[in-house]
Amino acid sequence: MAVGFLQRERIIAPPGWSRWLIPPAALSIHLAIGQAYAWSVFKNPLAATMLQGNPAAGTLTALPFTLGIVMLGVSAAVFGTAVDRNGPRWAMFISMVCFSTGFLVSALGVSLGQYWMVILGYGVIGGIGLGIGYISPVSTLIKWFPDRPGMATGLAIMGFGGGALIASPWSASMLGGFGATGENAQASGVALAFLVHGVVYAVFMSVGWLLVRVPPDGWHPAGWHPSEAKTGSLITTANVSANNAIRTPQFWLLWVVLCFNVTAGIGILERASPIFQDYFPDAGTEIAAAAAGFVAILSLSNMVGRIVWSSTSDLIGRKNIYRVYLGVGALLYLLITLLGNANQALFLIASMLILSFYGAGFATVPAYLRDLFGTYQVGAIHGRLLTAWSTAGVLGPVIVNAIADAQIAAGVQGPGRYTLAFSIMIGLLVIGFICNELIRPVNERYHEPTGEQAIRTTGAQAA
After folding, report:
1. Where is the Major facilitator superfamily (MFS) profile domain (predicted)?
2. Could you say which of 22, 32, 165, 398 is the most buried, measured as most Cβ atoms within 10 Å of its Cβ?
């Protein structure tokens, strides 16, 4: 249980507190942990200093990131109920401690020449910080913005997508300045970079846990009343506990929806540069710069899609917006597959939209969960659902890379290397689309008791 200044009771907002201070608090956490998407800048320095000559250097340098994403899903599922119970300040503080400690342990590991400590620090300890930090502001944002839950969660989760846009150039510049790159790369430079990351992110994330507040019971935005809340067959006024939620078909249908939407997006994102170069193999050095620009554009689309499409979901509904993510996404993959490299502009537009749907799927799903299961333990439910992300984080890259490697070995050139993989993505998106169509209101037997029913239940338990 949280103690002292971390207790939920200590962060109840006083009268007049502006709810618009909550998104910046959430962003300070998500922009920091979004550094995970910039892990690739450490791969070459680690390979050149700690793993020089190791034939498995490529796999080993990817391991901390892969393990970190797996631990994100696992820790979000395991600690989700504790996050809801103890409140956002406790969760953000624990996230800061774990995420920053992960960098510090990694720094020590590099200094001692012990690569297993980098895996432990960034992958395991830092990964726990990723999971707890990712879900920490969700239920709080939804309670502060009952009138616009999609926009609110989109604002915060946008930070996770955009964290790499800050971290990648900052980290690369730091590694270069500390002598961790080039032919004479020094391990001490990598260690110092990890150390600085740990300290700076601790300070930056402290803004979040110091600033965050929860609304008092019965609070609602000025000029808005709960009776004005948007209604619909999938928007419940009841509440479902996290333990009951995982017993419902709605949870598992949405699990498949998120998993396959993420699989389709991460399939392009993880191999973006080679895909672009295979589709448009121009001669000379310009292709490398163009591919790097393609990666940057996709990262920006991933970030912008999180706020644009999740805000749109407040207007047209969560089920409808996922019809767009999955249905239009499948058509865009079909377009890329059929078009090949005939039109670079259409390829870029289609890829950008697919990645915007990828990011938006993350940002919209907390509001979808709120619609289906209420606000009671939505953070814990969200944490358990994120195991779909861990699964997709392995599934997407494996599908695209394994098939592409097999095609390359067979001598296939150009877009043909990805025809089968992209066809599989179309199939997964269609399955996700069907699962979304099957989602119905949660049966009342899963609802938490209210009113006299709650009193009878409490009395029966006491007896």
Report:
1. 1-444
2. 32
